[in-house]
Amino acid sequence: MAALLRRINMLVLVLAMAAAGLAASQLTAFMQQYTQNLAGRLAEARREVDGIIDRAARADMPVYAYLNEFVTASNPVFRREGHALRARIDRAGWLADSYNALETAGLFKKPFVFVWYLDDDIAADVWRHFSPGIQLDRASLIYAGMGMAVGLVAVEGLRILLLLPVRVVRRRRRAVAGSS
Q: Residues 147-180: pLDDT tens digits?
């Protein structure tokens, strides 16, 4: 019986490591598609900001003064427009920061930078169109190995937690048997 349990444990371990490794190997492809989507949104946001800058220049005003005219207007429609314009400029800055951070992050830092700057809307769009594939580049292989290690740790940690009550009961039985 003990040999069968060891084999089942080993099978679960191998399957968990394989699943985690396979999932982690897809991270490179997902991050690449996410970055491409992000780049497209950044290009569009920059066009919007350029339009705002152009309208401010035609009004012979610096951008901050142009926006301030909207935000401080007595008409609520103009105030909302001013806040919307400011939000577009802020969004363009955030998209640029995200893109630059992802593009300059190293191999091991990139997944953490990706999670830090993750935009739910972009990720959802990428996920809708994402089709997994086998990648054999250096990053995918490293991420697969890291995923396998995470799978191993997760299964072993779960096994320890599940077996903890059994070990406590065995120790108590031994303590009771030893004191008799």
A: 888 888 887 888 788 777 877 777 877 777 777 6
Structure tokens at 172: 């108590």
Model confidence over 33-51: pLDDT tens digits? 999 999 999 999 999 999 9
The amino acid occupying position 46 is R
CA angle centred on 168, ends 162 and 172, rounded to 5° = 160
Q: Which domain holds residue 19?
A: 1-26+141-180
CA–CA separation, 86 and 46 (whole Å): 13
Give the integer Cα–Cα distance in Å for 110 and 114.
6
Contacts 24+ apart (CB under 8 A), 160-164: none
Total-model pTM: 0.69
136 in any annotated domain:
no
